[in-house]
Specification:
alpha+beta
Length: 140
């Protein structure tokens, strides 16, 4: 009769140990996935910063960088018809950068307004680049 309670206690201890091991393994996997996500986001942000640095020079320079780096896509965004003229930037570009780490892919998208020179006395003309929106997109 004492064998049955000892056997049940041993089974309970083995089940508790297996459950604890599963929790530890799941925690490690979640931590690894989070680290990969952060690294992929850092890669995407670095690619976005590199491409944005070229926007102030010329749009053609940014396009050539986007062609060289497959992780960057640059699109021109149409201005709104309902806004006031003072509210609308002269040029609005949307840049999408993709970063990868392990099996994780992160896409970051940012909108940049490029304000040109206001007068002919601005020599040399250096357009001002402003980031007006930033978002992280879901990856298919």
């Amino acid at each position: 009769m004492s064998l049955l309670p000892a056997l049940l206690a041993m089974v309970a201890v083995v089940l508790a140990a297996a459950g604890a091991a599963s929790i530890v393994r799941d925690g490690g996997l979640a931590q690894s996935r989070h680290a990969d996500h952060q690294l992929a986001r850092m890669h995407a942000e670095a690619a976005l910063r590199r491409a944005a640095a070229g926007l102030g020079e010329t749009h053609a320079a940014a396009d050539s960088l986007a062609r060289a780096d497959a992780a960057i896509r640059i699109d021109e965004v149409a201005s709104s018809d309902t806004g006031e003229l003072a509210d609308l930037p002269l040029q609005l570009l949307r840049m999408t950068a993709t970063g990868e780490s392990g099996r994780i892919r992160v896409r970051i998208q940012a909108d940049y307004a490029i304000d040109g020179c206001e007068s002919a006395h601005d020599d040399p003309c250096t357009p001002r680049v402003r980031r007006i929106a930033w978002r992280e997109l879901s990856v298919e």
